[in-house]
Specification:
With 119 residues, this protein is mostly helical. The chain contains 5 helices and no strands.
């Protein structure tokens, strides 16, 4: 993929997939037993709202710093997949979606940088 548009769509697929997976996972499929569902949804979903505007507008800087956030969700997915057999399929799906987000954002930033240096 050489065009930034393809990388951009891959980034959005991973990012939005992660967001909706967490909402569905904690809100409907396997609600947490120790905490209220609303608190779990806030804890899992609110950090993903911070880069939303910049990612939707295709800003390379937002793509770069959103990868730090992606690493937190990757670590959470790996930890949950390792420790909870009930949540393992959802955690593994989260890991895959975060990897898609990560690869898409890196590709997008690199292709935008190549576009700017060619000008």
């Amino acid at each position: 993929m050489k065009s930034p548009k393809g990388w951009y769509l891959l980034t959005l697929a991973g990012y939005l997939g992660t967001f909706f997976l967490l909402v569905i996972w904690f809100g409907w499929l396997v609600p947490p037993k120790q905490t209220p569902t609303s608190i779990a949804l806030l804890y899992a979903g609110v950090p993903l709202l911070f880069p939303l505007r910049g990612l939707l507008h295709g800003r390379p800087y937002t793509n770069q710093w959103s990868l730090f956030l992606a690493l937190l969700y990757f670590a959470y997915g790996v930890m949950t997949a390792w420790s909870s057999p009930v949540d393992r399929p959802y955690a593994l799906l989260e890991v895959v979606l975060v990897i898609v987000w990560f690869v898409g954002a890196i590709g997008y930033v690199r292709s935008m940088r190549a576009l700017r240096s060619a000008d």
